[in-house]
Amino acid sequence: MDRWEYEVRTINPNWESDSSVGVPHTVDIVESFINGMGEMGWEFVSFLPPISQKRSAVEPLDPSAYYAVFKRRVG
After folding, report:
1. Using one digit for the tens of pLDDT, what is the confidence trace for 23-71?
2. Torsion over CA of 44, 7, 75 and 33, rounded to 10 degrees?
3. How far apart are CA 45 and CA 5, in angstroms?
4. Are 58 and 34 in contact (CB under 8 A)?
5. CA-CA distances (angstroms) from residue 4 to 7, 17, 28, 52, 71?
6. What residues contact 25, with CB distance under 8 A and at least 6 apart?
7. Which is nearest to 15 in space by CA: 26, 5, 4, 31?
């Protein structure tokens, strides 16, 4: 039976650049992040809706952040 470990990562697609030339689109940033995790052996599972860091109903959520779930085999 396979054993898995899981990782939840925040992907913030906001991009800071000194130049307006070559600024990637949000999709490119997310794809690059997911591909980078894949190169480290992580398999993308799913996106989660925005989650409050304080887990409070009154805490505003960050609609610009993506929460991605990854898994990989242990051992």
Report:
1. 567 777 778 888 999 999 999 999 887 655 565 555 555 666 778 899 9
2. 50
3. 12
4. no
5. 10, 37, 28, 26, 6
6. none
7. 26
